[in-house]
Amino acid sequence: MDVARKYKEAYRMDFQDKSGRAVQCKMSCIPIRLCEFPDKELVLAAVYGFGEEPMLLLSGLKMQERKKLCHIITKVYLLRWRIEEYFKFKKQQFELEDLRVMSLQPIRILNFFATLATGYIGLTSSVHRKSIFLEELKECSKRIYEVPKFIFYALGYAIERVLSMSRTGIGGFLVKKVRSQQLNLFEHFKIEDAGALVF
Fold first, then answer.
1. Most confident of 7-16, 17-26, 73-82, 111-120
2. Residues β-bridged to residue 42
3. Residue spans of beta strands (DSSP E) within the chain
4. Which of 11, 35, 44, 50 has CB 3.0 to 4.6 Å from 30, enough for a Cys bridge?
5. How far apart (Å, rounded) are the C-alpha atoms in residues 105 and 67?
6. C-alpha to C-alpha distance for 8 and 10, rounded to whole angstroms
7. Under 8 Å CB-to-CB from 122, ≥6 apart: which residues?
8. 97-112: buried (b, 16+ CB within 10 Å) or exposed (e) per residue?
């Protein structure tokens, strides 16, 4: 921290947090060496704007342009929080910590289905970003305030509400296969050999 304070914030990066609010952070890139690894060249990225104290990120990346290096180190670290948010959502939405099972296999199966459902919600929020379907789901979520940028919770609640109104399960949402009026020879003949049809 003492080393970071000696360097001024040389570079700036603007981004949006998960609630859609604009955040401006300033960064410094400091070449350092650790006492335990004197031969290893490291970079300390000091990032200001996330609290009173700067956030210190240590990296072994090498790059001539320091501004680009600072941006890469900070962006990679901030992307890590999306993964944390994904696991947090999956545990809360599907109550994975409140399981009542006797062995590991049912936990794996439930986790698999929760992962599929979370993946579906993620694809829905990214692929159908400007569709009527997504707008209707947002409306079903019944949020008091505006839906935030991380809309997984709103979509999860909306899908749960829509499916809870169905009395027949998801079968009512599936398109039923219409039986063709065309005659099918295989329904009237039995095949014994590859080349012979027998009545």
1. 111-120
2. 32
3. 11-16, 22-32, 42-48, 55-59, 190-191, 197-198
4. 44
5. 48
6. 6
7. 86, 152
8. eeeeeeeeeeeeeeee
